[in-house]
Structures are given as C-alpha cells and as structure tokens.
From TrEMBL:
It is a multi-pass membrane protein. It is found in: Endoplasmic reticulum membrane. Its main location: endoplasmic reticulum. It comes from the Eukaryota. InterPro entries: Ribophorin_II_C, Swp1. It comes from Ceraceosorus guamensis. GO terms for biological process: protein N-linked glycosylation. GO terms for cellular component: oligosaccharyltransferase complex. Residues 189-284 form the Ribophorin II C-terminal domain. Residues 1-22 form the signal peptide. This is Ribophorin II C-terminal domain-containing protein. Keywords: Endoplasmic reticulum, Membrane, Signal, Transmembrane, Transmembrane helix.
C-alpha cells in the first residue's frame, strides 16, 4: 500500500511543473546541507522555499559525506499542513529513479541521503522534493533542489577525493596518534644501586670517627688517662651499636624493622651516657680539689 502511494505521488508530481503547480503547499524553515557523516564539518548550507531554490552548480558528494534536508510543510494560510505523502525523489542520467518517503513529525520533515544507498544508480543524479495529497483541491508539489555527482569506484582527481583526504592535502589534517596506557615505574627502579648506597653509608660511618681520631691526636698530650669505668665502656659500645644499626638500616632494613632495635639501643645509650657523664664530673671535681690543696 505504501509503495502504491509512492508511485501515485510520483505520477502526480510528474505532471506538476518544476516548482509549484498551485499555491496549496508551501515550505518554511527549509534548508539543505552537505556535511560529514559525523556532523563535525559542513561544506554546504543553503536555504530554500517552495518558489525559490538555491542556484548551485553540480555538487560532488564524497563517500564520507551526507546530504541533509529539513523543512516544514504549511498550507496557503500559513498553517501546518499534513499532506498524505512527502517524499524525496532521486533521478539519475540513465532514467532510473527512487522515491523515499519522508516522515513528518509536528509539521517538520528531516531526510538524509547517503551515497552508499545509491550504488545502483548512475553517478549523476537529481534530487527533488514531492508533496501530494489525496484531496483533489490540493495541488501536488514537485520541487527540484540540486544536482549531485556521486563518488566513483576509483577516484582519480582531487575533486573526487573524500573529505578527509582533501583536508589532509589542504590543511595537513592528521588523525590523533593512538594512545597506549603506561604504568608508572616502581620506586625500587629509581633507587640508586646498592654499591653506591654502601659507599655513602660507609662515608657516614667513617667520617665522624675520622674527625674524632684527628681531634684526639691533638688532645692526647694534655690528657691524663685513667682506666675507663664500666659505664664509659658501655656508652662507647652503645654508640658503636647505633652506628652499626644505621649502616644496616641503610643497607637492608625497613623503617619498622629498625625502630625496635633503635629504641633498645637508645635506652641503653641514655642510661650509660648519664652514668658516664656523672663519672667524668666526679673525676673533674676530684682533680680540681687536688690542685687546690697543693
């Protein structure tokens, strides 16, 4: 039934002139455009009416482009009309044609024409709008819009290139490079090698003792030695323990593994240091009292 109505509409419209037979139907807010398939760019955009169509030369429709039509159908009084059938007719230079019905929603019609849907037609085509009604008092409309040249199977000239190919030549357009996810490097990969860490740990351990021994070589002639007490020996041993713990921590231990041993050595060094300092104070006081009596 729908196919019969389309053929009837095409037959009625064929009897009408190129523009309007009567004043029954008018087109408002009518626009034709040639855009890319994704709608990102528009190469052609023209407005038209039922009595005036854009005067355009034959346009090339690339394989990645689409012809879009949008218009509203109204009657002679400017009210929204609801014709029995609205269609777009495509004729080629070999007298082949197709008629596609266009749905009207709230008085507005929208239609898109893709080149791949017309592969069975010749390359040179003509696009027209057909509007008809079963009411004999309403005259049909046959509006010729424009002539198009469909893309050939093997483009040989720059005018037959696709829109993407033309942009690459004219504007240097290139697609975005592919993105690949990269994982961050582990912290261990950015750490210095263990040999370098051992050198720095040895420097931290040796330099203070080197400075101390250098100072002792200057102070030794003026010092009077006594047998060290157990508290002083324990203090020296605890200090050596802390130095060794620092080296081991730098080499292989983690912070939480080192903290208990540090707490133990710190307590021992504090207690023995307090006792050793007290012992040295008593020796110093005894030395001063002996000098005062003499």
């Amino acid at each position: 039934m729908r196919l019969l109505r389309l053929h009837t509409l095409a037959a009625l419209a064929a009897l009408a002139p190129t523009c309007v037979l009567g004043a029954s139907f008018t087109l408002t807010d009518a626009k034709l455009s040639i855009t890319s398939l994704d709608g990102g760019s528009t190469r052609l955009s023209e407005s038209f009416t039922a009595t005036s169509t854009p005067k355009l030369e034959r346009q090339n429709l690339a394989a990645d482009e689409i012809l879009r039509l949008s218009f509203s159908v109204k009657d002679a009084n400017g009210e929204v009309a609801v014709p029995d059938q609205v269609a777009v007719k495509v004729d080629d230079d070999k007298r082949k044609s197709i008629v596609n019905a266009v749905a009207i929603k709230r008085g507005k019609a929208v239609y898109s024409l893709k080149p791949d849907k017309l592969s069975h037609l010749g390359r040179s085509i003509t696009v027209s709008i057909l509007v008809g009604s079963a009411d004999p008092s309403l005259d049909p409309l046959n509006l010729h819009l424009l002539d198009l040249l469909l893309p050939g199977p093997e483009p040989t000239t720059s005018t037959q290139l696709t829109q993407r190919a033309r942009l690459e030549q004219e504007q240097g357009f290139k697609p975005w490079p592919a993105r690949f996810h990269t994982f961050g490097k582990p912290a261990a990969d950015s750490m210095p090698p263990k040999s370098l860490s051992a050198i720095w740990a040895g420097a931290v351990l040796i330099v203070p003792w080197t400075v101390l021994l250098g100072l002792l070589s200057i102070l030794l002639p003026s010092l009077s030695f006594k047998a060290p007490s157990l508290s002083i020996i324990a203090l020296l041993l605890s200090l050596c323990y802390l130095e060794s713990l620092a080296a081991v921590y730098w080499w292989s231990l983690t912070l939480f593994e080192m903290l208990p041993w540090l707490a133990l050595g710190g307590v021992v060094a504090t207690l023995t240091g307090k006792e050793a300092l007290g012992q040295l104070r008593r020796w110093r006081l005894q030395s001063k009292s002996a000098q005062a009596t003499t």
